[in-house]
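Weekly structure sync, notes
Attendees: PL (lead), two postdocs, one rotation student
Agenda item 3: pending single-chain targets
PL asked that the sequence for the first pending target be pasted directly into the notes so everyone works from the same version. It is reproduced below exactly as submitted, 178 residues in total.
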Amino acid sequence: MPNPNPAPPPEGDGLPPRGAGPEDAGAALPAIERAMVRIRRSQTRRTLGRTLARDLARPVDLAHVAVVDAVEEGPDHPGHEVTVGAVAERLGIDPSRASRLVADAIQAGYVLRVASQADGRRIRLELTDPGRQLAGTVHHHRQAFFARLTHDWTEQERHQFARLLTRFTHALADASTS
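Predicted structure, written out during the meeting:
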């Protein structure tokens, strides 16, 4: 059921200008901080993973899901390939741990190591059919989960949230590389 009294959209994107400090954000920064802490805690408890395993009625190795997600994302730039190093970077782990996780996902049948066409010394990663099927199942499950969480939001609110969250994650990625 849509919210009968949605808040009017803020002017612009509702964010303080670039370079503004905490004193310019009013109550927004503490609210964002609390929300991010709650998100991080729920991710630590693996909320989505638990509900995925329950809904599929079978155990799911979340490490396999993380590797499949990282490989499915594709290369960062045209002409690049997905490697173990890219998986490590996307998962925020060291390359040796990523190598072990990728090896486990390969053994499980979700990922293949393929010789790079650009550089025969390099190995690229690609999803197998079961890997693509796992990715599709996980996407469907996550989107259904998010639909349940936002069931009382208007479509406009969902679009606004998606736009701002995407913008936030891009800024977060930029901040981590600078």
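Discussion points:
- The helical segments are 28-44, 47-56, 62-72, 84-91, 95-107, 129-149, 155-177.
- Residues 28-60 form one domain.
Action: rotation student to compare against the earlier draft before next sync.
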